[in-house]
Design goal:
The protein is built from 20 helices and 15 strands. With 563 residues, the chain is an alpha+beta fold.
């Protein structure tokens, strides 16, 4: 008679490489067959899983067994996370394998009372997988386990589930290692897993059912989060992806978004959960896009929320100086100790500030700010100054190189006040040359009656700004482009300057003077021209316009303090 040789199910050499690929056994949740009919059925099972339900901490119990909201879930999860760390320390100190001789059958057994029955048990936790545990005698093992349960891991009840080791191993590296580590315990019929009563019990049952059927019956956010955490604990990537997708499809709130970003780092770093984290970041960035409207709310956000909001390119702020000032205020509110503030700026907040787009006056303050480490401040300021000194072409190249980076330094945000470049002279007279660039799209948005302001710049101790307008000409016959120069200070202050407005123009692309004159500023006053180029708006914005060079309008003003 011909004898067929059956390959070892857990022999790595018999498993195709594709089984470990994202679309293979450890990753797919779309093409796998449905084994739901075999779940907890002894006819299709080769092992028995003992789920030991452990009590929660008193603090967790006080909130009730059922989480009524995301906030309650978050508090309970944080407590359970701390308790689990303590539990792992205990288990690792008293690591043991329980190995008792019993017939390989479960018929007629009662599992509620194990005091008199000698049952083969394998005590495992995710941190113990793959460890070569030294086997100890049955009596010693049982005595140690009883003592451990009594002192630390009191068992409230035991759930018995019939499992198929090939199905679980195909979905989870955790179970694969557990069933194929080559030790004696990997051949035992009974496997014991301890879980917490409040959430992990139901979540583990849902997870096991998913590993058979590729679907979940639960749809509430808190229940899905529990399953997600347990799926991470037992390395079931397909279930993590499934939970992540369901959570993304639920209505997002500020509370839920912050909770998703506060998940343990091991969960957030998983590829399966990354889309959920990205969705949470995008939600917060969109909600608080205009920081000035939600200053108090944003000031109360945790660090994860601050990172999501201020890493956005679409953040609507007056200038990068305003970003620096706000983050400094936030850090001083949440981290009153100087050492903590320096640490959070060095590790998190510093990379949210785009120093190259700050004004030189504010960069000087960075150098003397105690909240920054003495080695970090000069480095970021020097990098910013080098960027400012680069040609526009090189600046655009540097910005494009980091287009896909999670944190950008050179890419310009959508500032409410447009950045300017200033060259200052002290002698023979106080003078400054100011450059303002506006993109064609920015100019187009001004029609029919909009205006845009520049960031402030200083001359002779006084603050000035540009404002570009679209409005009707003097005779109200057509729209046109206007440019004005204003002084920030209000009140009885007077300040006399000579000025000249110029713009780059084709075909030479040189700066060509448009208007010059002198003006004595008083607080709140401005000087300028309603029709800077002397042409209608349609001609100014035409595709063949002489004033847009590579899609950018280049303006310049020279200001000199009058003697």
């Amino acid at each position: 008679m011909r004898v067929l040789k059956v390959p070892d199910l857990f022999d790595l050499s018999t498993i195709m490489v594709s089984d470990f690929s994202p679309g293979g056994a450890f990753g797919s949740d779309t093409t796998e067959p449905d084994f739901g009919f075999a779940f907890n059925d002894s006819n299709f099972s080769d092992r028995v899983l003992r789920i030991e339900i452990m009590p929660d901490s008193p603090e967790t119990k006080s909130d009730g067994d059922c989480c009524s909201s995301i906030a309650v879930w978050a508090r309970n999860r944080k407590r359970r996370r701390e308790d689990f760390k303590k539990e792992i320390d205990v288990v690792q100190r008293q690591e043991q394998v329980l190995n008792c001789n019993v017939p390989d059958t479960v018929d007629g057994l009662t599992y509620e009372n194990r005091d008199d029955d000698a049952v083969a048990m394998i005590e495992v936790s995710p941190s113990d997988v793959g460890l070569n545990c030294n086997q100890i005698g049955n009596d010693t093992a049982y005595d140690n386990y009883s003592s451990l349960n009594k002192d630390h891991l009191t068992v409230l009840r035991v759930n018995i589930i019939h499992i198929s080791s090939p199905i679980l191993a195909a979905k989870s590296p955790f179970f694969y290692k557990l069933f194929s580590n080559g030790m004696t315990e990997s051949e035992q019929r009974y496997v014991t897993l301890p879980v917490h009563a409040s959430a992990e019990e139901a979540a583990l049952l849902d997870l096991l059912n998913f590993m058979y059927s590729n679907t979940l019956s639960t749809t509430t956010p808190t229940a899905l989060l529990d399953v997600l955490m347990v799926a991470d604990k037992f390395e079931v990537a397909s279930c993590m992806r499934y939970c992540s997708r369901l959570l993304r499809n639920l209505p997002m709130t500020c509370e839920s978004a912050l909770l998703y970003l506060d998940l343990p780092s091991t969960v957030l770093m998983a590829d399966a959960v990354q889309p959920l984290a990205d969705a949470a970041k995008l939600f917060l960035a969109a909600k608080y896009k205009d920081v000035t409207k939600f200053q108090d709310e944003v000031l109360n956000l945790p660090l994860a929320g601050i990172e999501a909001v201020f890493s956005s390119d679409d953040l609507q702020v007056a200038s990068e100086d305003a970003v620096y000032d706000f983050l400094l205020k936030w850090a001083r509110t949440h981290y009153p100790k100087l050492e903590e503030r320096r640490r959070v700026f060095a590790t998190c907040l510093g990379r949210l500030i785009r120093f190259p787009h700050m004004t030189c006056r504010k960069l000087k303050k960075v150098l003397t700010c105690n909240d920054f480490d003495a080695e970090i401040a000069p480095k970021v300021v020097l990098e910013a100054l080098f960027f400012k000194a680069e040609t526009p072409h090189k600046q655009r190249a540097l910005a494009s190189e980091e287009a896909n980076a999670p944190y950008r330094h050179f890419l310009e945000r959508a500032y409410k006040y447009r950045p300017v470049k200033v060259v200052e002279f002290e002698k023979p007279r106080q003078q400054c040359v100011v450059y303002l660039d506006l993109k064609r799209e920015e100019c187009a948005h001004l029609f029919p009656g909009g205006k845009v302001y520049s960031q402030a710049f200083h001359l002779g101790g006084q603050g000035f700004f540009f404002s570009a307008h679209c409005h009707m000409d003097q005779q109200s016959s057509f729209h046109c482009f206007g440019l004005f120069l204003g002084m920030q200070e209000k009140g009885p202050v007077t300040f006399a300057v000579d000025y000249e407005f110029a713009a780059r123009s084709k075909p030479t692309e040189d700066y060509i003077s448009k208007y010059k004159g002198n003006y004595t500023f008083t607080g709140g006053k401005a000087v300028g021209y309603r029709n800077l180029f002397g042409i209608p708006w349609t001609t100014f914005m035409a595709d063949d316009s002489n004033y847009f060079i590579n899609g950018v309008l280049h303006l310049r003003a020279e200001l000199t303090v009058r003697q």
